[in-house]
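anyone seen this seq b4? input:
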Amino acid sequence: MSSPANTAPLAIDQALVYTWPLYEMRRMRAATSPLRVADAGAAPEGQRWCNVFTHARKLLRAGESRVVTPNNDTLYTNAWLDLSAGPLVLQVPDTAGRYYVLGFLDFFTNPFAHVGQRLTGTAARRFFVTGPGWQGEVPAEFRAPGAHIQSPTDWVWIIGRIYVNGNDDIPHVNALQDGFALTLPDGRPARRPFTPGIDPKAPATGQQVLTQVNAALADNPPPPEDAALLAPWAALGVAAGAAPTPAQCAGVDEALPRVLALLRQAGDASADANAAPTDGAGGAWSSMPLVQGSFGRNHLLRARVALQYIGMLESAEAMYPMSRRDGGGGR
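predicted toks r here
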């Protein structure tokens, strides 16, 4: 029988793999939620705005994106939703057949819902978005199929894209961007300030990771079926709202290099599936494994994607080919 000293590192590794998406989502929320919005000004000191859209108004150029595999034929839009106080209403404009998508990621990075051309059409519509604890009655307007979006977690990241047909088309898309809105059910603006609680550029230490993961678990409890998996990790410092001890932080410090090496395996989140063959020029293209709505029980893949491809939508909506060699075969 293995001793506790032999089994503890494995448990720490497992806990970090499971919770790594929460750490990355806390970082991304702090990095991409706005400090200022046009109709409300700057958030209070140390805070940012949630429940409001922000938009990229020009096409991306090299080095300008916060996502791993950007494109330059869409304009991006972004919103962080806090559903803990109740439902929100999402309003989308009529894009007249133009492709767009709003991808919804829960706080464990599962792409659980999509609004846009593929699934809900391009007409002007409104959607009723609720969190996991909401038990009210859905208003009659939102009882049509697809109009009620139920999130597995209270915090949600919306990542949107709208097709742009060249630079001359940008003003038309900017006008469409202004038609996306988030309100309370009574029509009032939904925006409110919140405290991110993290410097997104801070290094990943044991203290930092445990503090962020435990705060995220308190705000976004995992599925009930995972309770038995998480219960033993409390002794390692991983527990909703818990303040980690120095010894627990040291244990994570020891495990982090090992776990991050695993998550960066071969520098490619798709290392365990769907690697495409090398092309004739030595391009060594690879693509992500197929994901539909959720990563399910594949916690390792979920963590790899969170570290390397944060913001991935489901495979039916977007594919993410990547090559780490140039046309001449060099890295």
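Helices lie at 4-32, 117-120, 170-177, 206-219, 227-230, 246-263, 299-308. Residues 1-7, 271-282 have pLDDT under 50 and may be disordered. kinda curious what u guys think
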